[in-house]
């Protein structure tokens, strides 16, 4: 029997879970399908977020032949077979997984078929295509980011799988407890494939009771996804409470509390939440008071992602201890939020003429760029001139903290420059 995640793949765009920024009515992929003007594309995003589902749904919506290959493991011969099929049927949609591993001979073979449109390529990758995909392929495709699914998206897919009698588990009398459902939607971190695999394993490995009911409780789901729940709470707040306490403990310089809350997250297998939160903390709460600590946190996170649990706990603990004991400053987030508040309130003006783009014909007649002073032509690389719009020319967003020698030096330079400007 094919896995549940495979059986539940959507056959049309309307069945896709999440990714509404691409597939909702009026959005780009829906418009392409409706207009029957498909073009080759690259879908990139985390595993289990629907890249293959989007490709199969596009094929199902257009009735084109659909083939799946892997750029790393399938040979050029398989590509040649797809090309031959395209000659016969007219158009083939080819989902090419791990497209960032496409070799040059395979790429050279594909390019003329992409040019003619006989093969519509849908490349799937977890890597950033702007960095990892060859420019020759990239220039012939549109690039769309596939975002992690929300807990609501996962819950919707689980409900559909439990009720679908043709492809899902609807023929079986399954009761999924609220605690088990919540844990399954949360612990898989937006990976629908993992959620459906865990659900199927739980159902298939649980014996029905005397009435034929298969009851899936929290303990069963924990075992099937190999992730423990932080605590048994029916409200579902404990997960976020621990994450909140983790950040607030670092902000408050309590090393022992921060290590405790991180230990709870790691024991639950929630490495992604630890990583995301540490990155945020480094720049939100430590920031300019200690930029080296921010860099060290990024290095520790990179190491943790490479080695995985349980060893990931070592670099992460080092980062947490350093962030806890570091001086703190939130001046960067406060500065950008103050600037964003002005922009969102419409409190901005025209860019001064001397700062406007002057690289096009007729710019000087419009007064663009006239009077601009190039700072590098002046002593110390600085010259007095207005940069903010007239409406905001005396506005200050950055409010330095003096919690560290580093930001104290920034404060002195900031105040010195402001004095010269006045």
TrEMBL record:
Family from the record: Belongs to the AAA ATPase family. RarA/MGS1/WRNIP1 subfamily.
InterPro entries the UniProt entry points to: AAA+_ATPase (IPR003593), AAA_assoc_2 (IPR032423), AAA_ATPase_RarA/MGS1/WRNIP1 (IPR051314), ATPase_AAA_core (IPR003959), DNA_pol3_clamp-load_cplx_C (IPR008921), MgsA_C (IPR021886), P-loop_NTPase (IPR027417)
Lineage: Bacteria, Bacillati, Bacillota, Bacilli, Lactobacillales
Keyword Nucleotide-binding listed: yes
PANTHER family in the cross-refs: ATPASE WRNIP1, WERNER HELICASE-INTERACTING PROTEIN 1 FAMILY MEMBER
Molecular function via GO: ATP binding; ATP hydrolysis activity; DNA binding; enzyme activator activity; single-stranded DNA helicase activity
Protein name per UniProt: Replication-associated recombination protein A
GO biological process: DNA synthesis involved in DNA repair; DNA-templated DNA replication
Residues annotated as domain AAA+ ATPase: 37-149
The entry's keywords: ATP-binding, Nucleotide-binding
Keyword Ubl conjugation annotated: no
